[in-house]
Amino acid sequence: MRSSFSFQDEETGWNNPKKTKKQKELLSYRGKVLNQRMAYPFDYKITLAKRRIQAAIDQYGEEDCYVSFSGGKDSTILSHLVLSMGYKLEHVFSNTRLEYPECIKFSKEWCKKNGIKLNLVLPDILPHEVWKKHGYPMFSKEIAELLGRMWLGYKCHPKKIKKVKGFLKRLGYNGDPSDSKKVKNFLKRKGLKISSKCCYLLKKKPMKEWQKRSGKKVAIMGVRAEESQIRRTVWVRKGCIYETKDQVVVHPIIFFTEKDIFEYAKKYDIRFADIYYEPHNLKRNGCFCCGFGCHMTEENNFIKLKQMNPQLWASIMNHWGFSKICEKCNVKIE
Ligand code: SF4
């Protein structure tokens, strides 16, 4: 069903390589609108967020809606917004078993304090079983997916080869990246078992199953456009409320910046989970030992984890095999 907060691919011709001039102009206009809204005054962004929450509840019914809650700062602000409107929607925490203990503790306390039902959704497979069977999450979702396919001997589209070739070089492969047989042999010989399956098996699948069991299909999420290009693109294409094959997705705080999040917390005297404060000062929550993005920063997930919890770090490195795969991928772990 179409709402005033959603947008359709047909309007922008998103999947059409031969877009009309009008469609191209529309896409560029949507990008500009997004920038404008992100620059709106803080109080007005709160109004916009509440309008979107209300629209989702009006359109789909309170019973069908839930808050996707990770115990992170963005979902905490989202939760506060929903509560401030008088709704006690069920909160759902996707516990991959790789979440910071501080965020789990915070989520339980936050929900208890506010009288909200919290569901902790667990996958039916353990993280190290996923990595052993399918491969480790390294570099980025897209690159891990390509390397995972190459491990299995699949051919890649030339456009994808362009993307993955620098990574193959980094891993020590100097042959032709489009020779799928050679690439497969190289990856197997070096034990470079990399894959993007982790997110699906530890997060998406258990959440899909929970949605099916609970009958709730409207996920209200604390996603912000400022976080990544992918999130910007999703808004440009689909807007703040959109339907997928099996759920409805709502992004009320999509226009919030990091500064707005902290301003909101200050205004309403909200203390986030401990990971955001001294001595940890983390910028984001999420899985504590994900290899995505770790090749790009000096202060990566593994290095931070060692500072926060040396015992957990040692266990991940030695028992779960991250030290070996990181060494092969030339990623620092300490
Ligand atoms: S964020 Fe990383 S570690 Fe966590 S489920 Fe996704 S791929 Fe796995």
Describe, in plain words, how this protein is organized in 3D.
- 51% of the residues lie in helices and 8% in strands.
- It is built from 15 helices and 8 strands.
- The chain has helices at 9-12, 21-38, 42-60, 73-84, 101-113, 127-133, 141-151, 158-170, 180-190, 197-214, 229-238, 258-267, 301-308, 310-318, 322-328, and strands spanning 65-68, 90-94, 118-121, 138-139, 218-220, 241-243, 248-250, 291-292.
- The strands form 2 sheets. It has a 6-stranded mixed sheet with strand order 3-2-1-5-7-6, with helices on both faces. Strands 4-8 form a two-stranded parallel ribbon.
- The longest helix is centred in the first third of the chain and has 19 residues, at 42-60.
- Residues 96, 98, 137, 198-199, 202-203, 286-287, 290, 292 line the site of iron/sulfur cluster.
Structural class: alpha/beta
Strand order of the largest sheet: 3-2-1-5-7-6
The first-level CATH class name of the largest domain: Alpha Beta
> Which molecules are bound besides the chains?
iron/sulfur cluster
| Separate helix tally | 15
- Assembly status: single chain
Q: Provide mean pLDDT, rounded.
A: 95
What is the CATH topology of the largest domain? Rossmann fold
Large-scale geometry: globular
